[in-house]
Write a structure and sequence with these properties.
The structure is a single chain. Helices cover about 20% and strands about 30% of the residues. It is of the alpha/beta class. The strands form 5 sheets. The protein has a 7-stranded mixed β-sheet, with no helix packed on it. Strands 4-7-10-15-18 form a 5-stranded parallel β-sheet, with no helix packed on it. The longest helix has 18 residues, at about 50-65.
Amino acid sequence: MRTARITYRVCNGKSPIRQQPERNRHHGGMSSMKERMLAGEPYIAEGPEIMADLDRAARLSERFNTSSADDPQGRLAALRDLLGTLGEGTWIRPPLYCDYGRHIHIGPRSFVNFNAVFLDVAPITIGADVQIGPNVQLLTATHPVEPEARRAKWEAAQPITIGDNVWLGGGVIVLAGVTIGENTVVGAGAVVTRDLPPNVVAVGNPARPIRSVENAP
């Protein structure tokens, strides 16, 4: 496999990332694609480790998404098996779609409404008392802008962090590498391409703060 330099122009508007595949210091060879993925380096989604993790998440997601409303404990058990962390009193309404599941960490007393899409190639960290509306997408994955590298299936990811007591309205999209500060409200349909500070109301595409939460009507 060739190891050409790859340029990533991350969707959150931060500086382009230029990286080359590096040699594994311990083994003298190329790092596994899973190691590269977890390190936030360019990788290709192939190999037995990645495929096994994707299959695991697919099975557990199906178990959660098809669970009976008459069996809330079974539904909760499926969710705990799928996610990396599920805080006490947190609830997610199915269906939920994710890549790996175990890279999703949610604090206590949070709520996620129907049809969430959490692409957790990199960690997704959601704080306490967070409200997430229906059809929200948290997308840690990103791809090269160079057509040749993209055709060769290289990709990368950057983490997403949602602070305590944030409210994401229905249909909000949060892109790779974004942090949203505590108490912030993001209006329905907004596309969050850059970090948002704490204690603001933000709307639009791209999302921009329009007032503080103290001044909201």
